[in-house]
Amino acid sequence: AGVTTLSNLIVVGPQFAFSPTPSLRIEPAVYGAWRQSTNDGVYFTGMGLAPGTAGASGSRVGTIYKTYIRWLPTRNLTVDLDWEYFDVSSALTEVGGKSMHFVSVRPTLRF
Known about the structure:
The protein has 1 helix and 8 strands; from the N terminus they run E-E-E-E-E-E-E-H-E. The chain is mainly β. The strands form 2 sheets. Strands 1, 2, 3, 6, 7 and 8 form a 6-stranded antiparallel β-sheet that branches. Strands 4-5 form a two-stranded antiparallel sheet. Strand 4 (about 45) and strand 5 (about 50) form a beta hairpin. The chain is elongated. The model has no long low-confidence stretch (mean pLDDT about 90).
């Protein structure tokens, strides 16, 4: 789920992919995320525990809106774009968590 890791996390939602041209692929998705157990916490990538989430009452972690785009401008160059908006819910807002955006652009040049 991008910012969080799948430990103690249930993530459900639709994702679809389409290619408007042979050199462009777009994959939008929306996911709902819940803690499997409210006795455990919410974990970030690298298994870092979000402070205060272990034992907090809220089970809803949030909604994740994502779009992945792959563009192949030449046979040697690929450009990947990831955008994610993590709209946090009670499991994180109760302990001061805030919603966030994440953007990543990765060019790959092959010889």
